[in-house]
Give the backbone structure.
Amino acid sequence: MRRIHCVLLALLLAVGCGACGNKQEKPKHLLSEQQMVDVLTDAYLIEASLNVKKNSGEPVGSLETAYYDQLFEHYGITDTILEENMRYYTRYPAVLEGIMDSVAVRLENASREP
């Protein structure tokens, strides 16, 4: 599951630096912007949960795999599909910025819930 970490890091770098270049073909399984918001929000929540467990000294190796397997099963995608979609959306910085803004709002709202 280290692959998902690389994908998330690449996304953050693309948002921070602004992606440029030629437009890329759409992935065969293109996730809508709303689907990307949903998937990425859940992925960040998984990462936060794993970080809490790691910081408390709990081993998370198999748990990480289980969490991401559930994420992919829930959305009917694979890590490859997510990676292809992230590569696609990094070619459209304004769209990606909107997706990430929506993710940030959701995460902020989730942190306020009791």
